[in-house]
Known about the structure:
About 15% of the residues lie in helices and about 45% in strands. The chain is of the alpha+beta class and about 290 residues long. The chain folds into two domains: about 1-125 and about 280-290, Diaminopimelate Epimerase, Chain A, domain 1 (Roll); about 150-275, Diaminopimelate Epimerase, Chain A, domain 1.
Amino acid sequence: MKIHFVKMQASGNDFILIDEFNSIVIPGEKKPEFVVKASDRHFGIGSDGVIFVQPSEDSDARFVFYNPDGSKAEMCGNGIRCFTKYLYEGGISRKQKIRMETLKGVITSYPIAKDGVVGEVRVDMGAPLLKRKEIPVAGRPGDTFIDQAVEVKGRLYRLTAVGMGNPHVVLFLDDLRNLKVKKIGRGIREHRELFPNGVNVHFVQEIKENEFRIRSYERGVEDETLACGTGICASAVAAVLNKLADKGKPIIFHARGGDLQVGLELDGEGISKVFLTGPVEEVFRGEMVF
């Protein structure tokens, strides 16, 4: 069977999109097998995840996301930006405000288009989750997990945990250049006593006021990726919680795959919404035999 696909990337995070808006292309029980094969960078197309474009009863479309290992994920910020571009340019939704159904809930995005081509997308990622039970992190359900010392394989790390529909921890470091992202990230990700569902791990370096470098280890990819949208959102929130960023101003992140901007909507002293803005592009289209 030949499967039509579109390959897109957002800040170096690359995704395969399969259009199932009018009919199911790959049966549900076959999707994990397809995702693993398609995501392989040597024997498949190669990706940081596969997105299935499906209809929704209450929203403009349904966003169904699988990690490269075939597991389902709750959300993916950069994937949502690619999804928005596909919906807009493909004519599924030409709205200036697009509503998408995800496992996290309904996400709203705002395509920034010129002559019908979407070059950037702004996404309302919703409110960050800060309680241990919500993220989840083991311990007292109502407590937060901010700048906590955690020992992993004999080394001590200070972690801040933030949920963005999926779990993240953030470490603030002085230098990221020679960092062993995969080794350290995997060790923290697999600390199941503390993170029962696993966790995405982000290493952040402050450059100047409200500007940071970031490197990310993603759960499900099980490796470093060029960018992570929800992780950048979580890192912006963590920077505010650790008094390293001004929550009233845009926060810039330089990922290995490009730059992204985070804006925060405030409700008193708390953060009620996180907005992620960045570029997105189509890479190529093709067919894959499955």
